[in-house]
Structures are given as structure tokens and as C-alpha cells.
């Protein structure tokens, strides 16, 4: 997006970008292609439209518009929520048929800790809101925070095209307002956000200022395998 290269919901083009060129993507690409993979393996997959929780200072409604985010329902012994396109979030699928707390065991250690010496678990739950569901994550203070709201209505991939275009072009989109590239690691996460390199390892967050665009390009190449 930062380079002005249009993204269309075309399976062949997105496969070439993510798998062939290892360039990653955002939710419409990542979850769209993941759904294709799961179906090819014989899973029953449903595309779900979600609305991301906005910041308290956004001045607008608490959640973004419908189709703001693409998530997946996968039916096995029961319904599961899978999502490989929401940045720092759960790595293992979550059960959709319970409102109980669920522990994501997808990392060797949690990405965040509470106070020094306190135990920490990456905890999620899926709460009901009218006919919708809300994915929530427990923060380091023990409070439940909304991540996004979604409905169980089956959707087609092309229904996300308008919001896919919006997030590439609108000055209100977080993807046009800041250049961010992020990758989960077994022990945390590494992110290049504008001229900052942010690493989280074993619950310890470190941030390093990058001197210029050349240093940013070097960080992208070294830490994320992205060549610009």
C-alpha cells in the first residue's frame, strides 16, 4: 500500500505475492488465501465480516464499518474462529460455541507479561452481543478488551472488495496513515513501523529508532525478509 501498488481480491495474484514473493499482506489477502488453502485440504470454511474496535479517542462509533476485517469460521467437530490477518492476536483457532475463556498456546512464551514475576496467559473469549459475536482479549491488568465484532452470516470474498479498496486509499485508513510491517515469532514479535524497529522477546519490548529510509529498508530486509 505504501508503494501505491493496488491490491485486488484475485487468488492468483495474491498467491504470487504472499507465497511466491513472500510479501505478506493484510486481512483480505491473508485470510482469503488461507481459506482457499483450507478448502483445498478438505475443510469447510466460511468467510465472516468483522468490524474492528476503534480507539477511545476516535470520535466515532466504537466499532468500524462492516467488512472492516475478514475472519474465518472453520467447522470440524464444532465451529472454530481462525484468523491469520489480525496482527498481534491468537495463533491457534478459538472455539466459537463457547463464551468461556480460552488460552492461546501458539507461542513458546506469551508476547506480554503482567507485573514482574506474575504469571501471564494469552487469554481470549468470544462474547455474544445481540446477534453478533465479539472477540475479546484479556489485557495485562486483567481487563477484557474488545478486538472486533463479527456476525456468523456467510460472506463471499468479492463482498470485501469495497473495503479492501478503502483501506488502500482512504486517508482515514490506518494502512495509509502509517507504514507497518510485522511478523509473529515463536518468542514474540518483530515490527518495523515507520522509522522504528520494535521487537518483543520473552515479554520484553525493545524499540530502536532507525536513522533514515536506508536503515528502514535494511531492517525490513534483515528482520522480515522484505526487500523494497
Number of continuous helical runs: 5
Low-confidence region ranges: 110-115
Number of strands: 12
Structural class estimated from helices and strands: alpha+beta
Can you characterise this structure?
This protein has 5 helices and 12 strands. It is 21% helix and 30% strand. Strand 9 and strand 10 form a beta hairpin. It has helices at residues 11-20, 27-40, 161-169, 174-177, 213-224, and strands spanning 44-52, 69-75, 79-82, 94-95, 102-103, 123-129, 132-138, 144-150, 180-185, 188-193, 196-201, 204-209. The model is unreliable at 110-115 (pLDDT under 50). It is globular, with a radius of gyration of 18 Å.
Distinctive features:
228 residues; alpha+beta; eight-stranded antiparallel β-sheet; four-stranded antiparallel β-sheet; 21% helix; globular
Chart the SSEs and their pairings.
Layout: H1 11-20, H2 27-40, E1 44-52, E2 69-75, E3 79-82, E4 94-95, E5 102-103, E6 123-129, E7 132-138, E8 144-150, H3 161-169, H4 174-177, E9 180-185, E10 188-193, E11 196-201, E12 204-209, H5 213-224
